[in-house]
Amino acid sequence: MDTPPAETFYEPLDEDRFASTAATAGPWSPGLQHGGPVSALLGRAFERHDPVPGTRIARVTVEILTPVPVAPLRVAVRTVRPGRRVSMLEGDLFHDERLVARATGWRIVAAPDHIDPTDHAPAPPPLPASGQTVVAWPEAHLDGYLSAMEWRYTEGSFTGRGPGRTWARARVPLVAGEDDTPLVRALVLADSAAGVGAQYDFAKLQVINTDVTVALHRDPVGEWICMDSRVHASPRGSGLAQASLADASGEFGQVLQTLLVDEHRR
């Protein structure tokens, strides 16, 4: 579609409560959210909780306890391990006071300016000049998160199988009236790893992540992020999605997801 389903993912109701818009809806149902906006909303709360100058959120893990409805949400954050150089934050996401997701985040003091940077990853491919039309399995809901993001694949496709690589950016802000931070931009995309690296036909198998871990050794620069993703699964096992995140200067982080791989339960 040419226009996003809403002008933002969330509308603020007060300091810790948000109305979810149609743009948050994932591909499985128009009434259930994609994990990207959910993760980013928790990450945003971490950044705003008792900020400490000279530190950064280096790692966020989100546990998706139940499908998150497209409905009003409340976020609560606390410090569980205080410290001047290293601290751990914990965040809860509620719908009607029911806990639907929980996250932890490590806040770490920024490294000294004089250390030598290291980069062992290959450079990302150039950003393609144009994007792809959002296409998926027949019953997928496209008029939500998938359309609120702009996708430019360089390997694989929405209907392809096997490892995939795409540049992507959100077409709407996370919260109305705000500019997304680098952490928010990374988290909005990160939960798409299993989809970008899709190995199976989603019309035949349900592949859903129970969690997402995002570790960033530096903050991304610019709107566009390149995700290089692959999915691993075994009979009588479970699934695992791994992805690297890069900007125009190179890789800046990694994504890991644990996956439920099962037959559809109609």
Description:
- Strands 1, 2, 3, 4, 5, 6, 7, 8, 9, 10, 11, 12 and 13 form a 13-stranded antiparallel beta sheet that branches.
- The two termini are 28 Å apart.
- The protein has one domain: Porin (Beta Barrel).
- With 266 residues, it is mostly beta strands.
- The mean pLDDT is 94.
- It is built from four helices and 13 strands.
- β4 and β5 form a beta hairpin.
- The protein has helices at residues 35-48, 145-148, 182-190, 193-196; strands at 10-12, 17-20, 55-64, 73-81, 86-95, 98-109, 149-155, 164-170, 205-209, 211-216, 225-233, 239-247, 250-263.
CATH superfamily: Acyl-CoA thioesterase, double hotdog domain
Number of domains: 1
Q: Share of helix among residues?
A: 10-25%
CATH architecture annotation name = Beta Barrel
Rounded to the nearest angstrom, the distance between the terminal CA atoms is: 28 Å
Task: Name the shape in a single word.
Answer: globular
Rg is: 18 Å
| Weakly predicted, low-confidence segments | none
Summarize the structure.
Residues 133-261 form the Acyl-CoA thioesterase-like C-terminal domain. The protein is mainly beta and 266 residues long.
Helix and strand topology:
Elements: E1 10-12, E2 17-20, H1 35-48, E3 55-64, E4 73-81, E5 86-95, E6 98-109, H2 145-148, E7 149-155, E8 164-170, H3 182-190, H4 193-196, E9 205-209, E10 211-216, E11 225-233, E12 239-247, E13 250-263
